[in-house]
């Protein structure tokens, strides 16, 4: 009998704790697993011997349920890449030392691209050193939805639901005055526009926003943008524009770079103005009407009170599947969601070599963006729709959501 | 039998449509009321003869329910003050003409401070001109909670609940990394800090944010602020700070003015940087750790999916009471909420002369801010707590909330 270790890494999401819950419930009910440990702050907590015994802490279903409605990483997170073991085995020896100390036989690492790099390197090192009594499995998580192989990433559906719901509410808010106005909403995603695309779901029930959508996959041309805006403003007095934070120009530079360089002269150091603020300045100057920019900011990755039921469900299942796979002897893989049917939506979980995933980015297919580059296509909506379905009961106390604190 | 006219004005909120629903359901069930009209875009819609017949459109309870979960002003809004009738009766004659045309006997205007100014002037004009067959009543609404006489304002409770819930989620989000970090959350309120104060409710269930709270009622001293931040950072690695958008220095100038003036040199026109962005710049320079600023922006006034049940309930009742009062012959008053008991929380509705309300601002009492000026007191929490109680079922379709569109 061996113990299981689980850790979380990368940017927070609403669903990463559901995956943790899945790992724990699977390990808890398996006779081959002894204790369940969680590392604080991902791989950093392993390197510094900061392990928490979760076997007692997460023993009852009610606590697991509360964990599932807690946003962000209950175990803490880190942004850390391991050095290459070909160059130095220092970190790897330390990690293996901790694995031995706690008799770890199974390690599940929940995270995004950098975390899968860690799984890749660690599994590679174990293979090379003929360490075959530690099984290492990755469980995907990222609101950016940019991991390869998996149909979509746990955490994305809830972020998409937040973006869609908020967009439908912003549509109501922006429409109230008779005066011309433009609202720009900046959505997370530096390299992939999946989350920005999900703003289109805000229109499904007849709300009017967004009117224009710009993803970071297409070069952003200011002149083209101004043309689009003028055309829309000729049709209606108030428009809403959704943009990826990672908009780049034809040269591949972030559009915000020019603003930051200009601002640097005045402030002595760069002002971190986002894409929406940049476009706000341009529109105020070029169009001249009332312009407002909104950053959905961290709320899109932590608004657990409006989580997607299907996302939380899948995230929990994928955690359970990852633990199960490791306990059954699998290693060096990531759990992936396969869409097996579109109507009705069905999915399965399988496991893919981590080497095919780590350090790659899955961007939006060009054919899912309309020709004008200012909206998404029906295929995109069909893809997104199942991921935001369902609402979960959220436990409130004192009028405020309740969260679980593990430490 | 006379007809009733209702209109909405000022900034949107989550509860202003519940008040509209209250007005409509009261008028609908009163034998003395004929048709129910809504004016588009507040007083502007009356001046331009843009009235909608609501008698059919809002006849069934299900539609009224949907109206209550629709954020912003379903009838549209305006930001318009009537000129003084002593100087020109042009607008007033036009309004009375519309009242005659549609046989309006009762006019309920739902809004904030500017809207109560309109009620004040219009009722004054009618009195002066001996027009006694039109009764004019104001129904309060503002997320700023800064109207005089009323214990609190419809719309504020839902905004406060959004701020509290979001703060509790941001607390989870900001705590994940082991690195030092500061998060500044900017909350609406240029002249009154009520909504910023409600961020303190985010701590009620053990979440750690906010660590510091600065309301616009106290002069903001940068040196004192830096001292506070350094002291907190010595205790914990990650802190969250809540600030009113309307922070002012000792001279009474907005703290953002200096930033805007500096930025104006670079851009040729003012950059509308908020208080949080301003403080972000200062902290990055003075403290040097990771700093993030978050504006809750329009979401705090339109996130109806997380509305406060008690706010929506009271808002609907106050609409009904306002209509009832007008139909019974009352005029020139605003409906006010009276807190009649603290434990258990109970309230009543009465009517106050509009002259005592229009153009005054109710700020946070100094004794409800702590001595150091960086948090609120227990009295504030006691006041706020009943206003955010309860959650409402929200109707979703396609995974997105459903809203009612009246035009």
UniProtKB/TrEMBL annotation, chains A, B:
GO cellular component: cytoplasm
Subcellular localization, as worded in the UniProt entry: Cytoplasm
Site (Important for catalytic activity): 141
Catalytic activity: beta-D-fructose 6-phosphate + diphosphate = beta-D-fructose 1,6-bisphosphate + phosphate + H(+)
Pathway where this protein functions: Carbohydrate degradation; glycolysis; D-glyceraldehyde 3-phosphate and glycerone phosphate from D-glucose: step 3/4
Record Gene3D superfamilies: 3.40.50.450, Phosphofructokinase domain
Sites where the protein binds diphosphate: 11
Regulation: Non-allosteric.
Needed cofactors: Mg(2+)
Positions annotated to bind Mg(2+): 113
Keyword Calcium in annotation: no
Active site residues of this protein: 144
EC number annotated for this UniProt entry: 2.7.1.90
Family matches, as InterPro entries: ATP_PFK, PFKA, Phosphofructokinase_dom, PKF_sf, PPi-PFK
Site (Important for catalytic activity and substrate specificity) location in chain: 114
A single BP term in Gene Ontology: fructose 6-phosphate metabolic process
Superkingdom of source: Bacteria
UniProt-listed PANTHER family: ATP-DEPENDENT 6-PHOSPHOFRUCTOKINASE 1
The name this protein goes by in its record: Pyrophosphate--fructose 6-phosphate 1-phosphotransferase
Organism (species): Anaerotignum faecicola
Lineage of the species this protein comes from: Bacteria, Bacillati, Bacillota, Clostridia, Lachnospirales
């Amino acid at each position: 009998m061996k113990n299981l270790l689980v850790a979380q890494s990368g940017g927070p999401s609403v669903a990463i704790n559901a995956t943790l819950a899945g790992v724990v419930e699977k390990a808890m009910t398996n006779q081959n697993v002894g204790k369940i440990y969680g590392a604080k702050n991902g791989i950093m907590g392993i390197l510094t011997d900061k392990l928490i015994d979760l076997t007692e802490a997460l023993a009852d279903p009610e606590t697991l349920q509360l964990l599932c409605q807690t946003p962000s990483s209950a175990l803490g997170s880190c942004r850390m890449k391991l050095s290459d073991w070909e160059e130095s085995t220092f970190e790897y020896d330390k990690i293996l030392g901790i694995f031995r100390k706690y008799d770890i036989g199974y390690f599940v690492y929940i995270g995004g691209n950098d975390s899968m790099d860690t799984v890749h390197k660690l599994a590679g090192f174990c293979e090379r050193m003929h360490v075959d009594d530690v099984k290492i499995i990755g469980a995907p998580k990222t609101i950016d939805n940019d991991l390869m192989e998996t149909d979509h990433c746990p955490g994305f559906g809830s972020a998409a639901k937040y973006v869609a719901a908020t967009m439908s509410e912003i549509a109501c808010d922006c429409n109230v005055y008779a005066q011309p106005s433009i609202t720009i909403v900046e959505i997370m995603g530096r390299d992939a526009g999946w989350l920005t695309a999900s703003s289109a779901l805000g229109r499904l029930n007849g709300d009017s926003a967004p009117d224009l959508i710009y993803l970071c996959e297409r070069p952003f041309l200011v002149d083209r943008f101004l043309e689009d805006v003028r055309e829309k403003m000729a049709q209606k007095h108030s428009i809403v524009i959704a943009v990826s934070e990672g908009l780049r120009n034809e040269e591949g530079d972030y559009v915000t770079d020019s603003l930051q360089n200009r601002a640097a002269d005045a402030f002595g150091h760069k002002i971190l103005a986002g894409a929406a603020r940049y476009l706000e300045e341009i529109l105020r100057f070029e169009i001249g009407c009332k312009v407002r920019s909104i950053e959905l900011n961290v709320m899109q990755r932590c608004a657990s009170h409006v989580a997607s039921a299907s996302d939380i469900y899948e995230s929990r299942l994928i955690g359970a599947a990852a633990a199960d796979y490791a306990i059954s002897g699998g290693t060096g893989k990531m759990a992936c969601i396969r869409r097996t049917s579109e109507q009705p939506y069905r999915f399965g979980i399988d496991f893919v070599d981590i080497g095919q995933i780590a350090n790659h980015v899955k961007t939006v297919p060009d054919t899912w963006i309309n020709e004008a580059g200012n909206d998404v296509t029906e295929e995109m909506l069909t893809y997104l729709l199942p991921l935001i379905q369902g609402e979960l009961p959220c436990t409130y106390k004192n009028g405020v959501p309740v969260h679980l604190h593990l430490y």
